[in-house]
């Protein structure tokens, strides 16, 4: 799964799952462009990635702003020459009851989680086509599969991301661009810090997860290398859960006594 000589853009790659993807790609030899808003946090991530022996650079990009995406692409091509891999990871969530959402909150979530993902895919397409192919990895969610009553707009966008993934795989397959989605389970990140402070909720997650633990950002390194490499050239348009088996079961049942 060597990625030496490849260039990967990872949106929101300065922490959490995004950094897990970026590190996995870097471990295989890919140079990394981080597109994110917090430049100080990004510089810390860049230092970590460079310690893996690759070139890495951060670009101040808010994926809710198409102009910033387009400029990020210009800057990335200037620095690295082109793009072979995109991990469209950046996303946001606002948890509240459906009836309490404000219009600007709905628009904000859609703009980042769906429109932003599409705009990033569209931005890298010319470079990938010129280079003879590429890999796009979108990030869905457990809510791409299940409803989520306290985050309905987030769930709607993550369901749409999977549909977008299949559609782009269909559209760009003849250009040798594979487009796949990864569906993270319950992962230890800043975004789940609040929920992980609730013992009852933590136990419910563990009770339903065959792996018996919460995931770590490092758990995405392997899938990053596979979907970013030529090993996945005949894999496209699919959604792959990385969730310790959470989506495979309704609940865990102890085996009957003999």
Structural description of this entry:
- By secondary structure, the chain is an alpha/beta fold.
- It has one domain (7-246): NAD(P)-binding Rossmann-like Domain (Rossmann fold, 3-Layer(aba) Sandwich), CATH 3.40.50.
- The protein has seven helices and seven strands.
- The chain has helices spanning 16-27, 39-50, 66-80, 103-130, 152-172, 199-208, 221-228, and strands spanning 7-11, 31-36, 56-60, 85-88, 134-139, 177-184, 239-242.
- Strands 3-2-1-4-5-6-7 form a seven-stranded parallel beta sheet, sandwiched between helices.
What distinguishing features does this structure have?
alpha/beta, seven-stranded parallel beta sheet, 7 strands, 15% strand, globular, 258 residues
What's this entry about, in short?
This protein is of the alpha/beta class.
CATH secondary-structure class: Alpha Beta
- Strand count, sense and closure of the main sheet? 7 strands, parallel
Order of helices and strands: EHEHEHEHEHEHHE
CA-CA gap between termini: 46 Å
CATH superfamily, by name, is NAD(P)-binding Rossmann-like Domain
The rough form would be described as: globular
Rounded radius of gyration (Å): 18 Å
For the largest sheet, list the strands in their spatial order.
3-2-1-4-5-6-7
Please indicate the percent range of residues in DSSP E strands (runs of 2 or more). Answer: 5-15%
Number of strands: 7
